[in-house]
Amino acid sequence: MADVARTAGVSVATVSKVVNGRYGVAQSTLARVQQVIDDLGYEASLGARSLRRHQTNVLGILVAEFEPFSTELLKGASAAVGATEYELLAYSGGGRGGDVGWERRYLSRLSGTLIDGAIIVTPTVITSDHGVPVVAVDPHTGPSGTPTIDSDNRAGAMLATGHLVALGHRRIGFLGGRVDLDSAQQREDGFRQAMHDAGIPVDESLVTIGGYRPETADGPARSLLDRDDRPTAVFAANDLSAIQVMTVARELGMSVPEDLSVIGFDNVPESALASPPLTTINQPLQQMGAEALRMLVDLIDGRERASHLRLPTELVVRSSCAPPRRDPLSR
């Protein structure tokens, strides 16, 4: 601010008035100071601004790490913030802080001085005392007292399983997600319900946990496929796991979808780029991010709205599923 004042030939107090939009500055002086601000690239410190005004006009989106799911949410929040008076700060511990309670540590670093509110993606713990308004996206524990947004995971899983059943599959494997996530449990429940509705017993030896990551899904995928009575189809609880299933299938000499049908969940961009393009369940991730941001702004501004929003899921048919061409027990 002193640099701006010296260059513009005015006092620091005058620059402060211009920066903070206060009255008492002649129009010609205001224009000259603003030009110098633009020329020098001056920006007020967020910390200093928050101390003066108790507000930064910055919202945070906090994630354990940046991966396809959280990146799509971020795209939606970023698109929606343009219609507000806020800026958006994305913050991650780079995967180092993904253990239980990571969101508390992140909030303690940012709240009060850098952000006016936060969107937390898949938080492990939600409490009523965060220091700033908070909206949780897909929390581990499901909807709670904190405003939350998720998609209809159970209905989506039923769509995925029903699609495989409609193609003629009866021996269907399920590669589940993280056991600590409510949404992962909802997807398994949807799989089991759809199998029950179709009158097909679930073979428990074909139900395993993939953990939502390629590296954690690799071993379970091999255990499903490297057997004489392997399934004719696999429903993986997220796209990255489903893509890994297809990779393992190729390594074991199988062709997708001729020898094995695979369906995923999420519809992240990687699913359309897979070989073959992955049939999946779309949860509207960018819309979820946008709605989370709008919900947070309403919360900060004191506007009442429902504390939980659940968005619909839908089937996206591509090329990774086909009717079974063999009896899995006839080898």
Tell me about this structure.
The protein has 331 residues and is of the alpha/beta class. The chain is 41% helix and 15% strand. The strands form three sheets. A six-stranded parallel β-sheet has the order 2-1-3-4-5-11, sandwiched between helices. The protein has a four-stranded parallel β-sheet with strand order 7-6-8-9, with helices on both faces. Helix 1 packs across helix 3 and helix 7 runs parallel beside helix 8. The longest helix is centred in the last third of the chain and has 17 residues. It is elongated, with a radius of gyration of 25 Å. The N and C termini lie far apart (78 Å). 42% of the residues are buried. The mean pLDDT is 90.
Task: Briefly characterize the structure.
The protein is an alpha/beta fold. Helix content is 41%, strand content 15%.
Summary keywords:
331 residues, alpha/beta, six-stranded parallel β-sheet, four-stranded parallel β-sheet, 12 helices
Layout of strands and helices, then pairs:
Blueprint: H1 2-8, H2 12-19, H3 27-40, H4 46-53, E1 58-63, H5 68-81, E2 87-92, H6 102-110, E3 117-121, E4 134-137, E5 148-151, H7 153-166, E6 172-176, H8 182-197, E7 207-209, H9 214-225, E8 233-236, H10 239-251, E9 261-263, H11 269-273, E10 280-282, H12 285-301, E11 308-311, E12 314-316
Parallel strand pairs: 1-2, 1-3, 3-4, 4-5, 5-11, 6-7, 6-8, 8-9
Antiparallel strand pairs: 10-12
Helix pairs in contact: 1-3, 5-12, 7-8, 9-10
Q: How many DSSP helices?
A: 12
Main sheet: strand order: 2-1-3-4-5-11
By DSSP, the count of extended strands is 12
Give the uncertain stretches in residue-range form. none
Termini separation comes to 78 Å
- The H-and-E topology, N to C, reads as HHHHEHEHEEEHEHEHEHEHEHEE
Strand content: 15-25%
Largest sheet: 6 strands, parallel
What class would the helix/strand composition place it in?
alpha/beta
Arithmetic mean of pLDDT: 90
Shape: elongated
Radius of gyration using CA atoms only: 25 Å
Helix content: 40-55%
